[in-house]
Amino acid sequence: MPNWHPDVTDSIIENGSGREVGAIRAIHLRDGTPLRERLNAISDEDYEYSYSVIESPLPIANHRSTVRFSDSGNGCVRVVWATEFEATDGADPEELKAGVVAGVVEPGIDGFEAAAHTNS
């Protein structure tokens, strides 16, 4: 993740290779926030993976994200990053949603794009 997501400073796979269901990774965000995520599903055939944030100081619960890649023609790839979670601790759900989109999803998709151009 640190190779493509601008807000992730490190990512450590705690068990396994990181490509099997149940694998756990610990990451730190640029501001020092620690997160732990579990891989819920991965499909090479469908070009997608799903994960959940299982530990975080952020006011979220029941998190699940799925990232899908598909051919959109003309040598381009479409990325869809869908995220679901519940706001906790009195957090405003709409404000939290906007923060996740602006701080995680959009920079992540931009990072995928930059990494693809660097590696092509």
Please, could you describe this protein's structure?
With 120 residues, the chain is α+β, with helices and mostly antiparallel strands. The chain has 1 helix and 6 strands. Strands 1-2-3-4-5-6 form a 6-stranded antiparallel beta sheet. β3 and β4 form a beta hairpin. The longest helix is centred in the C-terminal third of the chain and has 26 residues. It is globular and about 45 Å long. The chain starts with 7 loop residues before the first strand and ends with a helix. The model has no long low-confidence stretch (mean pLDDT 92).
Compact overview of the structure:
It is built from one helix and six strands; from the N terminus they run ββββββα. It is an alpha+beta fold and 120 residues long.
